[in-house]
Amino acid sequence: MARIVIFIAFFLSGVTGLLYEIVWVRIFGLIFGNTTLALSAVMGLAGGGLMLGKIADRHEHPLKLYAWLEAGAGLCALLIPLLRAPMESLFAFLYPQAASQATLFFLLKFLVAFLLMFPATFLMGGTLPVLSRAVVRESERTGFGIGTLYGVNTLGAMAGCFVTGFVLIRVIGVANAIYAGVLTNFIIAAGAYLLWRFSVASRTAPALARAAEEAPLDQRVKIVLAAVALVLVFVMTNSVYATTVMLTTMLCGIGVGSFVAARRVDRARNLFAVFGWIEIGIGCSALLAAIVLINLSWIHDRIFTIGPRTSWWTWNGVRFFEAFLVMFLPALLMGASFPVAGKIAAPRLQNLSSRLGLVYFCNTLGGVAGSFLTSFILISALGTSATVTAMVLLNLLLGVFLIQYERRHLSRRFVAGFAVVGMLILTLGIRATPATLFTVAYSHVEKDFPLIDYREGIEGTVTVHEQVKPFSRTKRIDVDGLNVAGTSFMLKTLQTLQGHIPLCLHPNPQSALQIGFGTGETSKCALRHPLADFQVAEISQDVLELSDVHFRELNEGVLKHPKFDYAIVDGKNIVKYAGQRYDVVMNDGNYAVATSSASLFTKDHFENCRDRLQPGGIVS
Description:
Blueprint: H1 2-32, H2 34-57, H3 62-79, H4 84-98, H5 102-125, H6 127-135, H7 142-198, H8 200-203, H9 217-235, H10 244-262, H11 271-294, H12 296-306, H13 312-345, H14 352-382, H15 384-407, H16 412-432, H17 439-445, E1 451-457, E2 460-469, E3 472-479, E4 482-486, H18 489-505, E5 511-515, H19 521-526, E6 533-538, H20 541-550, H21 552-555, E7 564-568, H22 571-577, E8 582-587, H23 603-611, E9 613-619
Parallel strand pairs: 5-6, 5-8, 6-7, 8-9
Antiparallel strand pairs: 1-2, 2-3, 3-4
């Protein structure tokens, strides 16, 4: 009975963890950016797992410690929203000095976000290794206990993601959602504390780590290998967490995979071989997911030829189905890898929490590495196609190495030879991968407009499409599948009016800010007015470069205009934190429903635009 109560509590703990993450993105996303928040959160979780795991091994009452962790996490989560005003003041001070240096500004945002979120996420990260001491009572069942706990918590996170993203915020609002999460944390803490008070087993749990000996060299090598494998597992996927639908699907797969593996891992004789086959499975399933992803637009169209697009729930139901096709199988195998790694790292009860904390640290570290490497380095350097190939091959090679590890004594010569052959296979695989592998997906977005050029960058994929007819030629430029500008009559009319009307309405415009560049036609029109200062805020350098290549006839080479100035920066930040004031601020965001530009249609953003105006200024 006590174990069931613990599992229920840890399920609810997972619910609150994702509730806070989604709410924090709503509150602080406009300040820090979603990527910075995510990296800060997982760094806190990793640190908590590593450090509190060591403390748990020396603590005689793990349930009592867990109760204090939950109460502390709830209290920290309650205090975080109160720090929004000081954070905005700090950023208003830092922005003019650092905004022009993208790397420095990102590091500053990360540092402030990390300090803000670290106390709460640090305490949350320690709950898994601490609670494992209370659940795992037998060495022969460590894999079952670890996998079940991880699965329960992950499925709780899935439920929290779904309920918060689709229901809770819409029904009770952001502030009340925080209060609901804090209340849940306090209830969990009270329940765990009472369970400790009335449970003889918890009260007399031995501090096993005191008598534990240092792990032998072979065991430490195994722990390191398991850690490396877990890092690679999560390198492949964290960057795709773009919507509640994707995150819910991913968490569902991870939770189910952990549950399935937990029931079998303790009976496995060769854990490294099992881990190796899981790695190979992840590589193969990732390749299959890439193939499905390439054809996803075709699948989407086939679904809606069967049934009508009737409601919001129909749309999201289809999105869940499509996310399931792409992500569920790799996520299932990733979830299965955690209890296997936990069993390898902690085959006995000695040092269970500290070793599980190390595994959890590597697990979350892989999330950070995956998000950073994929977004900032691999896609920019190799492209999406080669990045997918590299990750698939790395998983396959690591899987083979893990299988061989238990079968024979691996000499240094074998390891060196395997590394050389592996690098050769990786190099050949990357070079042999067509750079245009995913252009099928890019082309399908604009069915009647064939793809003529594209760029894959940090801020998204920018594509240019062209439709040629006997008496006309029309071009469009898209960002992540959403059209932002073009040369059709309707788009040219909109772009022209956006550049002229606000400046015509102002009696004497001297300075103007345009948010979003598009094809550059709006900038061209604006610069026909007698402006002394004109600036464009564009978040993607690729939009500027492709527009200069493919829409130069339309924008008349506006990038070389002597009065044209631009900043590669998020438009919402430049009006919120930059000190300059303008006579006219022109918003050229695309769609209110698009994740990339939704913040440009909020009440806060328009109020910030108003605050950046000179007396008598105009916002459009």
